[in-house]
């Protein structure tokens, strides 16, 4: 049964990624070509797949400062594009890099296939203190550590100060005040809405649930065929019914996220608020058709109980060592060390718009006091994102996370079409995920 389960999960991972329309990679390590320059040609090379912005400069810095190892970097595609190629390499037992960039939410989908190395035997716990609690938990399972955290996505609220001032809207600190702000904007006859609620938000939607205490999955790689599923808890239902109420009142839109139309709406005043992770400011600034007259500021994410704030995270990526690595110890040195200096992180922050999970950078005066011209010189890290990062304690993802997100998207779409309320959407999601997990050979905890 376990062999069948592992094979099935592999097919699902490839199929889910294939929906992006990319083709599978076929290159082997011997065929790999480096995007970057190799400084010391006599040193052994570690192949790396990653799509970080400005990453070539980070690689160049590493290669210039290391004589014992050199990084050979390739951008094998972003997100699911890369995962498709990695899944193909896993199935063919060749062609994977030594080190691969993976979002924390998909780690379990690859550990169950024995595609990643437990880094505890290569000194991962020696650097644990250099990372935030939440990011380390996201990269771990039980006593095992399957990746080194890089960046994270503590959440805040980006808002159009010019529009808030125009309509005399106070910056909301609670979700009740957020609804009042949405109603004020509509009553004033604005052409736009306060915010968009995307049914395809995936990790964004799950972060909203987590703020109300949701723990959707229990999973430990030491018991790979056991999984706990609890996506229909009362907190999640309360959150979803809140958002469905805003939808049905016409106070928010339900556009798919990260489409061309969505990006336009982010910058043309259609949305007065962008509920964003700490990488959101970089994403927003990168939109080429941004309104030069817009005045953006950042505030903490609204809370259900202002006296007891709960911080949540959306996204985050890691470096993992693959089971196909030629020299796993050397590959672990790269995974641990490539973003292991302040100098590397200054490149990541200033040129890649990354939010570090690396505490020496997080705690530095440089990062704390950094001013962002796009936000009128606001110190957004000090005022918002550092507190959010410190309050995030981590999450557990399922070994079929892509499937779970796809099912969530279907249920949310049905909800916003008026076919069901939030409670039924999550009850149906619970039933479908339990059925799916059981059919794939998992034992679902009661």
TrEMBL record:
Keyword Signal: yes
Keywords associated with the record: Signal
Lineage: superkingdom: Bacteria
Signal sequence, renumbered to the chain: 1-20
InterPro entries: Bact_solute-bd_prot1, SBP
One protein family per Pfam: SBP_bac_1
Record's protein name: Extracellular solute-binding protein
Originating organism: Cryobacterium fucosi
Organismal lineage: Bacteria, Bacillati, Actinomycetota, Actinomycetes, Micrococcales
């Amino acid at each position: 049964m376990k062999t069948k389960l592992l094979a099935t999960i592999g097919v699902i991972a490839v199929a889910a990624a294939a929906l992006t329309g990319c083709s599978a990679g076929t290159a082997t390590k011997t065929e790999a070509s480096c995007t970057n320059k190799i400084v010391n040609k006599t040193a052994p090379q570690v192949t790396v797949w990653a799509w970080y912005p400005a990453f070539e400069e980070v690689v160049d810095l590493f290669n210039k400062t290391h004589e014992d190892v050199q990084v050979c970097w390739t951008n094998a595609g972003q997100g699911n594009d890369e995962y498709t190629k990695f899944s193909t390499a896993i199935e063919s037992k060749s062609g994977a890099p030594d080190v691969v960039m993976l979002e924390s939410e998909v780690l379990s989908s690859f550990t169950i296939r024995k595609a990643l190395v437990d880094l505890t035997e290569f000194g991962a716990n020696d650097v644990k203190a250099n990372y935030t609690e939440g990011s380390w938990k996201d990269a771990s399972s039980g006593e095992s550590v399957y990746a080194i955290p890089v960046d994270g996505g503590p959440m805040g609220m980006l808002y159009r100060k010019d529009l808030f001032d125009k309509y005399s809207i106070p910056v909301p600190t609670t979700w009740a005040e957020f609804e009042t702000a949405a109603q004020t904007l509509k009553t004033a006859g604005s052409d736009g809405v306060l915010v968009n609620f995307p049914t395809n938000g995936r990790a964004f939607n799950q972060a909203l649930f987590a703020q109300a205490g949701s723990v959707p999955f229990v999973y430990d790689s030491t018991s790979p065929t056991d999984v706990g599923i609890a996506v229909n808890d009362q907190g999640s239902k309360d959150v979803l019914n809140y958002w469905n109420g805003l939808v049905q009142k016409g106070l928010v839109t339900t556009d798919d996220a990260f489409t061309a139309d969505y990006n336009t709406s982010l910058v043309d005043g259609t949305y007065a608020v962008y509920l964003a992770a700490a990488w959101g400011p970089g994403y927003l600034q990168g939109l080429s058709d941004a309104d030069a007259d817009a005045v953006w500021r950042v505030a903490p994410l609204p809370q259900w109980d202002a006296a007891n704030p709960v911080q949540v995270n959306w996204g985050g990526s890691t470096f993992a060592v693959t089971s196909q690595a030629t020299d796993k110890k050397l590959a672990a040195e790269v995974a641990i060390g490539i973003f292991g200096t302040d100098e590397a992180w200054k490149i990541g922050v200033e040129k890649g718009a990354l939010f570090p999970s690396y505490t020496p950078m997080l705690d530095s005066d440089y990062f704390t006091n950094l001013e962002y011209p796009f936000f009128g010189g606001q110190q957004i890290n000090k005022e918002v994102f550092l507190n959010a990062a410190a309050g995030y304690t981590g999450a557990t993802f399922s070994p079929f996370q892509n499937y779970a997100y796809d099912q969530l998207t279907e249920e949310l779409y049905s909800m916003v079409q008026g076919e069901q309320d939030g409670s039924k959407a999550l009850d149906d999601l619970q039933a479908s995920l339990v059925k799916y997990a059981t059919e794939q050979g998992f034992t679902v905890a009661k």
